[in-house]
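Handout, page 2. Input:
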Amino acid sequence: MPHGAARRHFALKRAIGVTNWRINRHRTHSTAIADAIARDIAGHSPDHVALTGDIVNVAARAEFPAAARWLEEFGDPKWISFVPGNHDTYVRCDWSHGLEHLAPYMQGDMRVKLTQSTPQITTPFPYVRLRRNIALIGISTAVPQPLHSAAGIVGPAQLESLAQLLSDLRERGYARIVMLHHPPLPGLASKRRGLIDAPALRDILVDQGAELVLHGHNHEHMMNSLNSRFGMVHVFGVPSASLIQSKHHPLAAWNLYRIQRQGGKWLMNITTRSLDAETRAITTIADFPLST
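Output:
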């Protein structure tokens, strides 16, 4: 697509997104609810926080510094790991005007040999953060898409690197948590909204295993499991953290994962905390154990 045509295309997409926000979405999403979810998370004192994308709406320049300020109030970049979603690359936006504001939350502390970057996201992906016996692997699926598309892609470089990382980190005894925005398995989202290379990602997870895969995008409570060569891979998605009312999706929520090693397996307990529609309090709606 010629540069001028691309600019007009994304300008139209952003205009439609802004109109949709003003007419519909501003009634169903609330910054105050996102703040309440953040306070509830902090009140439970987790060792680490994983944010799986869509921190802005239409990737307008003014949204990114505002998002950075919100994250700074939430917590230190060493405590919060972020991966971008499709709304964070809703249209083409240079790194310096966009996601650079969130760069400290997307930087690893382990050298990764094979990575990729784009004009929108110049921090290398995948990245790895090691926290005690937990390894968080951040994958980017966010790329600007045509009008009416919200699909994502991992890409060959990240897929190859992920396979190597999962093998290496398993041998080193880490519980491996993969973070990405789009649902990682085929069939979990429509073609228009799904992960284009989900079959290739699924094959890597089957071959190398992982203890947890965390995603967003669908705005639903989602739990799926996958048999790998090294045990069960548990895949979780969560609703939007700012959703205050909806006929089609559950209200704002988050998951707390407690992970420990026992008898050669990783044991997990998952607690789901959600906004109550009547009281507007955030309460526990599920609490259950899982094992790899």
